[in-house]
Every structure is written in structure tokens, then in C-alpha cells.
């Protein structure tokens, strides 16, 4: 009896707080979903907590009317994919050289690349703006892709390096005996072997680029080039009092990232844990 | 070309683009930020060297001290909420008999993938004075503690910091959870045989063994707090007055709104030094000895 009681309390003590936190992390999102179908009155006075009494789909059509969602999506997609492609290529090549090739500065240059993990992006904004102004990069996709890639390189390098290091050396030795060049070994043998790492990095970098805000805010003022976060900000200043439409826009812009996460959650967590293995 | 030459050429092809790119876009601008912090500069005309004047001006600027204080409060909230509560949740999640581990972990992580603008917008609504979620909850449970959370002199920075902590709890949770998973089972078995109570066992075994992981967690939480910007920018625009200012906000305002690039650079330089200081302190005091199982 006492044993049973003890087990019950342990259960309550673990599931209780865990469920409470489930509410804390998910309810705001459910609340957002609900209020994207309500009007101001229902959101803030008549029906604050619950499901909409009357589902106002017009919030969504209103949002689509005044918010160029297709344009912002397209811009965010171009920027995010561009960032992923360049980050992966540059980091893969460098990590391979740092992990598998023999040269004197292999370790020093790896540490150098890794240091970017602890550098906040905002501190370079001023010189970066000047640099982009000089190169006439402002108001182009490259204006944000370039800094995004530069800052994601450290993270990507850490992951790829760890994966390359874990592969057995015999692979290259036997390939070299067969007369394969460094490039053949890299493209034909090594890159396919680190595909899981490429997936992890791509997803992580994609989410970063999709959500980034400050660099985009400073480098892009042209409305047709604005990414989704900038679009949201613009919408807030223009139509901030229509909470329902605001909610609809927020829901629409959030759905892709949530889907990406639900599909690839394990990969994301793996990438995170590998990167934390490098301590500052 | 000899084989050796070919190898060296390949090495250059693989490393130079990345190293060069990183140096030009990240490292060189950092040095420039420091250099330009000693200049009076509008970003267009040539800069005039003025020594430490920008720093002296910061020292006397009320906004600067509010920014420093807010950065520290933000960092504190992140540490307590993400690492403190994150640890408790991770321990509970690592209970062997627990069902739905994956479900819980995934749910806690979901806010991480939201855009910062969405999170800020969402919490503006949650903190709304009239009928926002928090105030409505308080009145639902009969508490007479309704506030203008985001504009209150004492509540503003805490409210903003909490939304930031909420946003990224999942990252720290995953890091701590994986670190716990790597602790050998025998340690707990021995403690259980000795009859150690659950939480005491974790306090004595888990937490000390997490110190390596905590190092990384603390660095990202503290530098994240000191660097906070977006939450303030979207939620309160630094105000009312200067109560929700941060160093990044000062830099942004000085450089991109008032055209004082030198002064903005000085604020950025202080931010780097502050982050560096904390990183050094954490490295010095947390997990000085490597743990080997």
C-alpha cells in the first residue's frame, strides 16, 4: 500500500510539472492559432482563452489581401536556400581539409573558424553596412546571404569536422592506392559518407536564415526584397490594431518552420548536441 | 606537377575560400568596430580620431547604464529559466519509466523554431494590458495584480526577458538532456542502493557531472542575454523612455538612426568586451577539471 502510494506520488511529481510546462510552451501557440480566427473583441474581452465561437476565415483572406505573403515567402526561401548552399559547400571543403589532410595549421585554422560561434552578429553590423555599401550589395539577396553564411560557417564547420574525424582513415588510403585524386576522394567517397551531417546542418542553417531579422532590417529596405520577418514587422506597423489578421499572418509564416521541425526534429537535436561538444 | 604539389594545391582550394570569406566578413569587421570606436565618424565622410571620447560619453550616458543593467537582467532570466528549469525538466524527462519522452521534448522545442518577430508579436498580445492572456489569467484566478507589463518601469525588462527565455528554452533543454543521458547508469544504481532520495541523488550526482555541459549552456545564455535586441525592438522599441534599452539597441540607434557610427561602434565594442569577460569567467570557474568516467 505504502509502496503504491509512493509510486503514485513519484508519478504525479514527474508528470505534473512536465504537463504544466507543456502548457507553458504550447498554449501560447494554441492561443495564437485561436485568436487568428477571432476579432479584437473576442480576443481581448468576450472569449480570451477558448476556441473561437465563430471561425473568422476572413482574417486569413484579409491578411492575404494586404500582406504580400507570396513575395515574402519567395524572398525568405531564396535567402534561406542560398545561405544553406553556400554554407554547406564552404564548410564541407574546409572541414575536410582540417580533419583529413596533413598540414601544419590544420588545428589552428579550425579553432579560428570555430571562434565565430561566440561572436554576436550585431557587433559587426556597422563595418558590414559600410562594406556592403562600398560593394553595392545593399538591397540584394546577397546583402543578407553573405553575412548569414559567414556566421553559420563556424557552426557548420564544427559539425562537419566532428563527422569527418569519426571516419576510418583506411578509406582514403585504399582509394589513394587505387589512384584516386584528392577531389575524387572528397566528392565521391567522403561527401556521401557525411550526408547525415549535411542534413543536420542544412536544416539548422535554414531555420536560422528563415527567421533572422536584424541584418535583414539593416541591409534591405526595398519592399520587394524583404524577408518574412521584415514583412511581419511592416504589417505590425500598418495594421497592428487588427489583431485577428495579425494572428493569421503570424500563423501562416510559422507553419513552414514547424513542419520542417516536426519532420527533422532528430536531425536538429543531433546538430545541436554535436556543436555543444566544442566548449568555449 | 608532382603529387606533393597537387596535394598542396588541393589544400589551398579547400581552405582558402572559407578562411578568406570568414576573415573578410567576420574577423576584419570586428577589428574595424574597435578601431572606429576611437573616431568621430558619420559613416560617409572621413573619420576624425578622438581617442577615448566615445567611451567617456558612454560612461556619462544614462542610456548606457540602463542598457548594461538590462543586459544583465536579461542574462539572469535566461540562466534561471532556461538552465534552472531546463535542468529540472531534463531530469524528469530522463526518468526511465517515463512515457512520451519524445512527445514532451518535441513540444518543449517547438517555440525555438518560431521567428523572433512572431514570438515578440505573440507576447505583445499576451502582455496586453486590457484582456491580454496574463492579465486575464490573473483575474480568472482572482488575483488583483493586473499590470501594463511592457510599459511598467519595473516589469518591462523582466517581461521582455521572459518572452526571450520562453522562446529558446528548448535548446538548453536538449543540451542538458543529452548530457544527462551520457552519465553512466551505475552511478545512479549505486546511489539508489544506498537509499538516496530522488532529488538529492540528482543534486549530488547529476548536477556536478553536468558542469562541462553547463559551461556551454551558460555561455550561450549569458551572451544571448547581453546581446538582446530584437525582443526590445519589436515589443517596446527601447521605451517607454529608455527603460528597455540594450547595448545593441544603443548601437543600432546611434549608427542607423542618428548616423553616429563612431559612438555606435563604441557601444558594440563594450558589448564584445562584456561577452568576452563573461566567457572567460565561465571558463575559469565552471568545470575546471575534465570529467572522465
Oligomer: heterodimer
Biggest sheet descriptor of chain A:
none
CATH class of chain B: Mainly Alpha
The pLDDT mean of chain A sits at: 88
Tell me the strand order in the biggest sheet of chain B.
1-2
Derived structural class of chain B: mainly alpha
Task: Describe the largest sheet of chain B.
Answer: 2 strands, antiparallel
Question: What is the overall silhouette of chain B?
Answer: globular
Low-confidence stretches of chain A: none
Shape of chain A: globular
| Rounded radius of gyration of chain A (Å) | 24 Å
> Biggest interface and which pair forms it?
A-B, 89 and 91 residues
* Separate helix tally of chain A: 13
Could you please say which CATH topology of chain B applies here? MetI-like fold
Name the average pLDDT of chain B: 90
Sketch the topology of chain B as an H/E string, one letter per element: HEEHHHHHHHHHHHH
The CATH architecture name of chain B reads: Orthogonal Bundle
Helix coverage percent of residues of chain A?
A: over 70%
Tell me the domain tally of chain B.
Answer: 1
Number of helices of chain B: 13
User: Total strand count of chain B, please?
Assistant: 2
Tell me what you see in this structure.
The complex is a heterodimer of chains A (280) and B (293). Chain A is mainly α. Helix content of chain A is 77%, strand content 0%. Chain A is built from 13 helices and no strands. In chain A, helix 4 (69-100) crosses helix 10. Chain B has 293 residues and is mainly alpha-helical. Chain B has one domain (61-286): MetI-like (MetI-like fold), CATH 1.10.3720.10. Chain B has 13 helices and 2 strands; from the N terminus they run αββαααααααααααα. In chain B, helix 10 packs antiparallel against helix 13. The chains are: A mainly alpha (280), B mainly alpha (293). The interface between A and B is large, with 89 and 91 residues.
Amino acid at each position: 500500500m505504502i509502496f503504491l502510494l509512493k509510486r503514485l506520488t513519484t508519478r504525479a511529481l514527474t508528470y505534473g510539472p512536465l504537463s504544466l510546462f507543456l502548457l507553458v510552451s504550447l498554449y501560447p501557440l494554441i492561443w495564437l492559432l485561436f485568436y487568428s480566427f477571432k476579432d479584437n473583441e473576442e480576443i481581448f474581452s468576450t472569449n480570451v482563452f477558448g476556441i473561437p465561437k465563430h471561425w473568422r476565415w476572413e482574417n486569413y483572406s484579409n491578411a492575404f489581401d494586404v500582406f504580400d505573403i507570396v513575395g515574402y515567402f519567395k524572398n525568405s526561401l531564396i535567402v534561406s536556400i542560398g545561405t544553406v548552399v553556400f554554407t554547406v559547400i564552404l564548410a564541407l571543403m574546409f572541414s575536410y581539409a582540417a580533419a583529413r589532410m596533413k598540414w601544419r595549421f590544420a588545428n589552428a585554422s579550425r579553432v579560428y573558424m570555430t571562434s565565430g560561434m561566440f561572436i554576436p552578429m550585431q557587433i559587426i553590423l556597422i563595418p558590414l553596412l559600410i562594406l556592403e555599401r562600398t560593394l553595392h550589395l545593399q538591397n540584394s539577396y546577397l546583402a543578407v546571404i553573405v553575412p548569414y553564411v559567414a556566421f553559420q560557417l563556424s557552426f557548420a564547420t564544427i559539425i562537419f569536422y566532428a563527422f569527418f574525424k569519426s571516419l576510418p582513415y583506411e578509406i582514403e588510403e585504399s582509394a589513394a592506392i587505387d589512384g584516386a585524386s584528392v577531389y575524387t576522394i572528397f566528392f565521391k567517397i567522403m561527401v556521401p559518407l557525411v550526408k547525415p551531417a549535411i542534413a543536420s546542418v542544412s536544416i539548422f542553417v535554414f531555420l536560422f536564415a528563415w527567421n533572422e531579422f536584424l541584418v535583414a532590417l539593416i541591409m534591405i529596405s526595398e519592399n520587394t526584397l524583404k524577408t518574412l520577418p521584415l514583412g511581419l514587422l511592416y504589417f505590425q506597423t500598418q495594421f497592428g490594431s487588427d489583431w485577428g489578421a495579425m494572428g493569421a499572418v503570424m500563423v501562416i509564416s510559422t507553419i513552414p518552420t514547424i513542419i520542417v521541425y516536426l519532420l527533422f526534429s532528430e536531425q536538429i537535436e543531433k546538430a545541436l548536441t554535436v556543436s555543444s561538444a566544442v566548449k568555449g | 606537377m608532382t603529387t606533393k604539389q597537387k596535394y598542396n594545391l588541393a589544400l589551398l582550394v579547400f581552405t582558402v575560400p572559407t578562411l578568406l570569406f570568414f576573415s573578410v566578413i567576420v574577423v576584419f569587421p570586428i577589428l574595424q568596430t574597435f578601431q572606429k570606436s576611437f573616431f568621430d565618424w558619420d559613416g560617409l565622410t572621413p573619420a576624425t580620431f578622438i581617442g577615448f571620447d566615445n567611451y567617456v560619453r558612454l560612461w556619462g550616458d544614462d542610456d548606457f547604464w540602463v542598457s548594461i543593467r538590462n543586459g544583465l537582467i536579461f542574462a539572469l532570466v535566461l540562466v534561471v529559466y532556461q538552465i534552472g528549469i531546463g535542468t529540472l525538466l531534463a531530469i524528469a524527462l530522463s526518468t526511465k519509466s517515463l512515457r512520451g519522452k519524445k512527445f514532451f521534448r518535441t513540444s518543449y522545442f517547438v517555440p525555438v523554431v518560431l521567428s523572433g518577430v512572431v514570438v515578440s508579436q505573440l507576447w505583445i498580445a499576451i502582455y496586453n494590458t486590457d484582456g491580454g492572456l496574463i492579465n486575464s489569467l490573473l483575474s480568472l484566478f482572482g488575483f488583483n495584480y493586473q499590470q501594463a507589463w511592457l510599459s511598467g518601469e519595473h516589469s518591462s525588462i523582466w517581461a521582455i526577458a521572459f518572452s526571450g527565455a520562453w522562446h529558446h528554452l528548448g535548446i538548453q533543454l536538449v543540451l542538458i538532456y543529452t548530457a544527462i543521458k551520457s552519465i553512466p547508469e551505475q552511478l545512479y544504481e549505486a546511489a539508489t542502493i544506498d537509499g538516496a532520495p530522488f532529488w538529492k541523488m540528482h543534486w549530488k550526482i547529476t548536477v556536478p557531472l553536468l558542469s562541462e555541459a553547463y559551461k556551454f549552456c551558460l555561455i550561450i545564455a549569458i551572451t544571448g542575454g547581453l546581446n538582446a535586441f530584437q525582443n526590445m525592438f519589436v515589443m517596446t522599441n527601447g521605451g517607454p523612455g529608455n527603460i528597455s534599452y540594450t547595448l545593441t539597441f544603443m548601437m543600432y540607434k546611434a549608427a542607423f538612426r542618428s548616423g553616429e557610427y563612431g559612438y555606435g561602434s563604441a557601444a558594440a565594442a563594450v558589448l564584445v568586451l562584456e561577452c568576452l569577460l563573461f566567457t572567460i569567467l565561465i571558463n575559469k570557474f565552471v568545470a575546471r577539471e575534465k570529467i572522465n568516467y
